[in-house]
Design brief:
Layout (H helix, E strand, L loop, with lengths): L1 H19 L2 E8 L7 E8 L4 E2 L8 E6 L4 E9 L3 H8 L6 E5 L2 E9 L2 E11 L2 E10 L12 H5 L2 H8 L2 E3 L1
Antiparallel strand pairs: 1-2, 2-10, 3-4, 4-5, 5-9, 6-7, 7-8, 8-9
Length: 169
């Protein structure tokens, strides 16, 4: 009876993810300073957003949504340099402190076609865990006169993806 209930619940969970179009991918990184420490991040996406399997590695991935004209590249790092990245980012116009999925970080327009978001996921000894996300148009044909990168960044789908981040250290 317990097995039947467990299978039934599993089936319901799978159907609920399918109904919402929800899917996840996972990135993993090992700390160079202490190889016993591992960081894992799970990121959700759905709708017409797809994972570019060719760009998926252990610690990086790319999502593409041609319908909404955005792409998002993610990079997971163990590095003791978050303060350095913040100070550098502050030199750019449009720097903002942000919070996604409960993680503090920053964002700024990296250039006229791309936003950089950096979230500090964890800090343990000399191993800070950071997730970088770059949001840009999905099209290879970027028109500097008409591309509104802020509008692309502020789309619900992009914000939902950033809000889906789950970390396990």
């Amino acid at each position: 009876m317990k097995k039947i209930i467990a299978l039934l619940l599993t089936g319901i969970m799978v159907l609920s993810l399918t109904a919402c179009g929800g899917t996840t991918f996972t990135l993993t990184q090992v700390c160079d300073e202490d190889e016993t420490k591992t960081a894992t991040v799970t990121i959700g996406y759905g709708g017409s957003t797809v994972l570019d399997e060719a760009m998926l590695t252990d610690d990086s991935a790319e999502l593409i949504n041609e319908e909404k004209d955005f792409s998002m590249e993610f990079y997971l790092y163990y590095y003791d340099g978050y303060d350095y990245y913040v100070e550098d980012a502050k030199t750019y116009d449009g720097f903002k402190e942000v919070k996604y999925s409960g993680f503090e970080g920053y964002m700024y327009p990296y250039d006229e076609f791309e936003y950089e978001v950096c979230l500090k996921l964890d800090e343990a000894d000399n191993c800070q865990v950071m997730l970088f996300a770059y949001v840009a148009p999905a099209s290879d044909l970027i028109d500097t006169e008409t591309t509104d990168i802020e509008a692309i960044f502020n789309q619900k789908e992009v914000q939902d993806i950033l809000g889906s981040i789950k970390y396990k250290g």
